[in-house]
């Protein structure tokens, strides 16, 4: 009821319910309104004639015209409002699409960056699994990523359930695994006994040589400077995060790269082997006896800690992806294995 106690006038558009049907085009709706008005006018005219209304024909026409104008105004108003709502909806949808696209692009960049890191397959799988579990890659195919990561870890004898929050060195960063610390054979044995090999499980040792410099040229500058130059070469020039695990000369054993993580030396075996680079060009010069002794003792120490056999040894030239004769023709694999066996036999007798 209104203020005068009268019922409110009905909405003239209420009977045109099809105006709210989004499946109909604007032109069709206007056509239906016009036809409805024509039909209404026809019915009204017949009723006027049948009931002999006292209203004159011009009055009826005027009323019909007024209603038609009202209908057209109402329709135009509704169409303008619908256009505004559609515009706002389209704008919101476009913004949502852009946001979703940016999110997916960000996640793809994370995966691409992680896969391009110079790390072992198990390390990459561990980070990938962590990112999936943390919900960072929620817009990608997380089920497939999780399955691939877990399979890779299991293939490397790592329990996927043991993967926690990776350390900064385990995540994709600009840091490297180079160490550059010098050890005597005895100090090296003590150090390796305390290395945590839980992040990866080396299965054998691979041995190569530097070729350049020769053992004589190596000492023309201090070995400390040599090691720093080698790290700079691998890290800054080659763009590697790591290199061989050990560099061995005639005076010391250098931990060149972190033993607790895969190194980079023999392409086929980076994920599987402790790698050793002996200083010298043993394709042209004799195998230096002190380099040989230090290498044998280092291998014996590694075999003891990792419970490897002396025969768990490869030369770099045996790598199917290697195209160089490293460590040179003057290094015999069977002789190295025999020397390591002797060291381990002497240690066992003690």
Keywords:
350 residues; alpha/beta; Lysozyme-like; 3 domains; 6-stranded mixed beta sheet; 9 helices; 8% strand
Write up what this structure looks like:
By secondary structure, this protein is α/β, with parallel strands linked by helices. It has three domains: 17-93; 117-162, no CATH class; 178-349, Peptidoglycan recognition protein-like (Lysozyme-like), CATH 3.40.80.10. Helix content is 50%, strand content 8%. The chain contains nine helices and six strands; from the N terminus they run H-H-H-H-E-H-E-H-H-E-E-E-H-E-H. It has helices spanning 26-51, 57-115, 121-133, 142-155, 185-192, 215-218, 223-237, 289-306, 333-349, and strands at residues 178-183, 204-209, 246-248, 253-257, 273-278, 313-315. Helix 1 (26-51) packs antiparallel against helix 2, helix 3 packs antiparallel against helix 4 (142-155) and helix 8 (289-306) packs across helix 9 (333-349).
Proportion of strand residues: 5-15%
CATH topology of the largest domain: Lysozyme-like
- Profile the largest sheet: 6 strands, mixed
SSE string, helix = H, strand = E? HHHHEHEHHEEEHEH
Give the mean pLDDT.
77
CATH homologous group name of the largest domain: Peptidoglycan recognition protein-like
Tell me what the CATH architecture of the largest domain is: 3-Layer(aba) Sandwich
Radius of gyration using CA atoms only? 41 Å
Low-pLDDT ranges: 167-174
Widest β-sheet, arrangement of strands? 1-4-3-5-2-6
Q: Tell me the count of domains.
A: 3
Bin the helical content: 40-55%
Summing up helix and strand content along with how strands pair, one would put the structural category as alpha/beta
Counted by DSSP, the helix tally is: 9
